[in-house]
Amino acid sequence: MRGDPEDLSRPGHRGRAREWRVVIQSLRAAGAGRGGVLLVEGPSGIGKSRLLAEAVEVAAERGFMVARGGADELRWLDPLAPLMSALGESARTLGFPKGVGSSGDLRIWLVDQLRARLEERLVQGPMLLTLDDLQWADPATLLALRSLVSDLASYPLVWMLARTSGDDAALNRLYDVLGREGATRVVLAPLDDEAVGEIAEDVLGGAPETTVLAQAAVAGGNPFLLVELLAGLRDEAAVELADGRARLVTEPPLRLPESIQTFAQNRLDGLSPRARHLLQVAAVLGHSFAVEDVAELLDEPAGDLLSAVEEVLATQLVVARSDTLAFRHHLLWQAVTDGIPQPVRQWLHLRAGQMLLDRGGSAIPAAAHFMAHPRPGTTQALAGLDRAAREVLPSSPQTAADLATRALELTDAADPGWFDRTVTAVEALTATGRLSQAAELARTGLDHASDGQAPYLRHQLALTLLFNGRPEEALTELEDVLARPDLAADLRDATELTWFVGLFSHQDIWRGRQRAEAIAFAREHHGDGALVGALVLLMHIAWAEGRVADGLGLVREAARIAGGGSIGAHSTGPRLNLAICLLNVRLFTESEDVLRAADEQIGRLGHTLQSAGAAYVRAYLRLVTGQLDDAAAEAEAGLETADELGTHTFTPIGILVLATVSLLRGDLSAAADYIRRYQAHSARGLAFPAGWATAAVAEARGGPGEAMRVLRTICPDVAMWRWHLVAESNLAAWGTRVALAAGDRAQAEMIVATMDRIARDNPDFPVLTHAAAHARGILHRDAAALREAAAGSPDPWARASAAEDLGVLLGGASSEPDHQTAIDDLDQALEGYERIGAPRDAARVRARLRGLGVRRRYWAHSERPETGWDSLTDTENSVAELVAEGLTNKQVAAQMFISPHTVKFHLRQVFRKLDIGSRVELAHIITRRDNAS
Predict the structure, then answer these.
(1) Closest listed residue to residue 134, CA positions, set 126, 146, 122, 151
(2) From the DSSP assignment, how many helices (H) and strands (E) are in the chain?
(3) Which SUPFAM superfamilies match (predicted)?
């Protein structure tokens, strides 16, 4: 039985009392329901692994669930290996989706699965999760940690993340981000003289004399080196004990090794040639190794190695584990590895990689050896890197890019595999957002590609240009490819789809009309990609011509075709487009159904390209239904996902939602910043209607004249006005009002006439009818039309806006009934604005009421206290109740049809307002409240 874990005088805590207090405080907090994050760092041998091991032992004694894992220098290619090993999971246990090829992207899917596994455990009680040696972690692990640590902050989970200090930019960013979010940095420094003396006494059995301490000083305060040096003195009888003191007995004093490399070499020098050879071969296999693997590399039966294995174990460089042998410390492994001449090490890595590749299964372990010390032109090594790049692309595109580019560097331009490796490298670089590098490589490839190969690279080059915000250049490349009569069917299909996407991005839909109509007419002669792209483009044209039902029919068909996953990673995009279109015309129920289906498809196929897009569309849904907090939370979650993954296709939607929320809340500076970001991003992503938000910000900062200048730029002709008025019907009344304020009655009349025609031609869409009535009421000062809009619009902001316009109109009348009716209408507008959280609009209505001699207090929402149970909004109440029942964030999200990110956002608000930090505390508060009621 170990001693009291909080006894800071225990040998295991020599020189680490401060750090151990931090660990104990974190475990104690987790026992009470609060999680935490400890970021442990320091040089090799400083005691990081020891601190983690001690924490695991203490946590287990306290009844914690424990999970421990670590990265490995020869497993850095294996996506999520540290987390998978810690949790005992694998692609098989997680139910890795079948049929996902290189075009799939499963990063978000994998993180979601790990999050679900952790949540299932954490609802049962506190957990300590330690991950060591993160300096060797793969990019997918760093991405997962960035997400999981934040998402699981409300659970009783203590993370201990350890790394060797260094200049790894990605890992430094992770530590910095977690530090800003409240993680505690634990930087292990060299031991001081007092701790060195205490450890010397522990190892030698007596208080060290000055001569012993002088020898111990060469360890530089490094605990591992120090213990090894002292143990060497003891084992070689260089120290004697007398009267409880330890002193050197050699004269002159024994010269101790000054580095771990020297220490390891001394141990190696004592081995027989056979045992030394075995240990060096084993070191090439990694920090831990199987005897049978060493035997295979040595081409000897495993049984013949037993005596050599026993000799190696006797050195204490290596220890036995349950099913493998392992170097006792990374420094020892590194020292042995560094002692192998590089040509020999290179040859051994090549042999090890070939051995693993010949066994079949995953190519990733073999690729790690080929990457460690590659040899140019080695056929089998290059084949292994090719296989590993394709294998890892769906789960870690960054790793795939590293593999593919390394394989390409080792390939001669005359090699038959050079072209395929170039295409793979360009695909992987594009998937990770390294667009300039991808484009440069594609152009280099085109200089060496044959006539038959060039179209594949041209398509890839076009994709990089499109994602990099250069749609016109992309379209030129795509049109050159499509002009080839001998183009392979699958490449033609993919190229036509990309061409249509480029036209959306460039907002040049008319340019593609003839091709789109031809494809739709002769659809049996075209692939699904081309057909989907054509249908979506024709939908935009239909809306620009005021044919709303036709447009919806086209995009519904596109979503149905794409729903089968037949166009790879793009297959969810048409569903998200359909959800957006349905929201534009305020068909909320169908839009929610489509969005649910898109979410399921993203989860099933792992389409990271659309993962952020789904969050943005949910944000738009919350915005048009007047739920501004939820809208902002969803949009911010989407931006976070897009930034982490480098996928910005739908980003303009999220930015525009945040601009609109900021505008409605009265934060004009933030709104203007978002509009600038929208304009910078819009060329790179989906064309999205932004007339109202962009012009409204311009009007707030520069007046009606500036707003009209912006609108004329966005809508240079009647066709674009039709497209925008269908897609954002609130623009009709707002644009009419601003045009009149700017003295441009002709423009106002054009807007009203256009909206009236759209409404007449599309009587099955009430939102258009009410928008037309609202605009007409403003232009002609028609109270009946304004009353119709105020009563019937499905959009809560539009209803409030119509009621305000009606109140303004009636407030100018002289009769008493009209005066009171105006007050009632303005009260309706005020309540509507305040209900959705639009204080800028509400303040304007209060000023109008004061002009009629009426002063209104702020709505009850504004009087809600800042903290305490009564400060929670209805949504926060619902989230709190469900969480207190033991539901995970994902389960709460499913019940409320919000994303887990939004649940996390509201839960943070609940914790802040109630001044708590865990789900356990929340459950206790709700229990006490229920018992008292």
Answers:
(1) 146
(2) 46, 11
(3) C-terminal effector domain of the bipartite response regulators (SSF46894), P-loop containing nucleoside triphosphate hydrolases (SSF52540), TPR-like (SSF48452)
Tens digits of residue pLDDT in 429-439: 887 778 888 88
Residues 237 and 150 in one domain: no
* 70-119 tens-digit pLDDT: 998 888 888 888 999 999 988 777 776 654 544 456 777 788 888 889 98
User: What is the length of the chain?
Assistant: 933
Where does a domain end: 452, 487, 522?
487
Residue 14 vs residue 540, higher pLDDT:
540
My answer on whether omega of the bond before 365 falls inside 30° of 0, hence cis, is: no
Residue 130 phi/psi, 5-degree rounding, is: -110, 140
Greatest Cα pair distance in the chain: 116
Q: Name the β-bridge partners of 326.
A: 288, 319
Would the pLDDT of 3 be above 80?
A: no
Residues 6 or more apart in contact with residue 12 via CB below 8 angstroms: 50, 54
Closest CA to 889 of 899, 881, 878, 876: 899
CA-CA distance, 23 to 11, in Å (whole number)? 16
Measured in degrees and rounded to the nearest 5, phi and psi for residue 101 equal -90, -160
253: left (phi over 0), alpha (psi -120 to 50) or beta: beta
Tokens 């166009």 -> residue: 567
Using one digit for the tens of pLDDT, what is the confidence trace for 846-871? 999 998 888 876 544 445 677 888 88
Using alpha carbons only, what angle is made at residue 747 by residues 743 and 753, rounded to the nearest 5 degrees? 135
> What is the distance between the terminal CA atoms of the chain, rounded to a whole angstrom?
48
**Domain boundaries, position 49:** 11-187
Q: Are 491 and 455 in contact (CB under 8 A)?
A: yes
Domain count for the chain, please give it.
6
Residues 27 and 107 in one domain: yes
Q: Is 277 exposed, middle or buried (0-12, 13-18, 19+ CB in 10 A)?
A: middle
* pTM for this predicted structure: 0.75
CA distances from 758 to 87, 245, 377, 513, 765 (A): 58, 98, 65, 21, 10
The answer on 451 and 306 residing in a single domain is no
Contact in structure between 822 and 807 (CB atoms under 8 Å): yes
In a domain, 205, yes or no: yes
What's the CATH number where 875 sits? 1.10.10.10
Contact yes or no for 550/762 (Cβ under 8 A):
no
Q: How many CA atoms lie within 13 A of 841 on its CB side?
A: 31
Query: Does 73 share its domain with 182?
Result: yes
Cα 922 to Cα 927: distance, rounded to the nearest angstrom: 9
